[in-house]
Amino acid sequence: MAAEQDDARDDEGLGLPTRFRRGKPGARPGIAISDLETMPAPAVRVPITCIDYSPDRVEKHRITDFDAFIKNRREAWAKVRWVNVDGLNDPETIRALAIKYGLHPLAIEDMMTTGVRPKLEPYPAQDGRPPHLFAIVRMVQLVDGALESEQTSMFIEGETVLTFQEAPGDIWDPIRQRLEKAGSRLRELDASFLSYALIDAIVDHCFPVLEHYGDRLEELEDLVLDRPDRGTINEIHQIKRELLLLRRAVWPMREVVNTMQREPHECVSDVTRTYLRDVYDHLIQIMDIIETYREVGTSLTETYMTSMSNRLSEVMKVLTIIGTIFIPLTFLAGVYGMNMHIPENQWPMSYPVFWGICVALAGGMVYWFRRRGWL
Question: What is the pLDDT of residues 40-64, one digit of tens each?
Fold first, then answer.
């Protein structure tokens, strides 16, 4: 339920008509170029960066003259081009890139509809454009201690990789730094190897996220055993919800990576498929850790309920013992407190003797409870 709410929140604030976020039953599938022309444009264009590189050279620049970028072809020395778009609320930019690279309307719809399950779709050549691969993955990261899952779309066409993110900010700075280094394997290989590196960075970033949850679960285990309270169980449930969101992001990516490495496609080289096996192994390991942590969370919930039940039992035991001790004392006090003639009341030592009997009776009961192990 929490994960569905997170997906619903992801759909808000995109500036897109509702019919493009969730298609009406019977509506035309996909988002065509003509549909993008009618969608409202933002006041400020989304940030777009372009990195052209080859084994001997690399150039990185932010695109400001978008029209010139669309019209011009990349220079002959550039072996691979990586275009990254930080935002989905600029239909004009998406339209121009769709025309330049021949993006399929179904892929455009999936890209602009956040909350789509990670998947891999091959699209054939059309309108003189070569075939391309379209992949959706989810980039998870911790922001102020809270888990955020961002949809990331990726197009692989020839020697070009297009990436579309929901908002600025990502975990790909190490990839950019590797591209700056001469002799880097990234600079030596093709565009599919760049796509592998981007997906691998997303997958590997899950490990520090899981380490964070592992540390929190260890802390909660100590709290549950020592001093459980309502805040503890609320935090346990929050972790379980976030682990469910993480599982929803990681589980389908196994299919994406598995399909890329097993099914031959001209956009993915044999070298890239070899490296994708390692990414698949990491995904299996991440899923095992997630399932283990979810079981730990469930165990902590049961431990919390048991601890609270034991605390309640201890309180009830103490109250029951106190009540049991005072029952005979109350009886004696009630009898000798009646407004009637009692012979012992005329005896001067009756008051201290009464107290002595009460103290002895209470002490004897406490001693007997201890002997029985009730205290």
Answer: 888 888 999 999 999 999 999 998 8
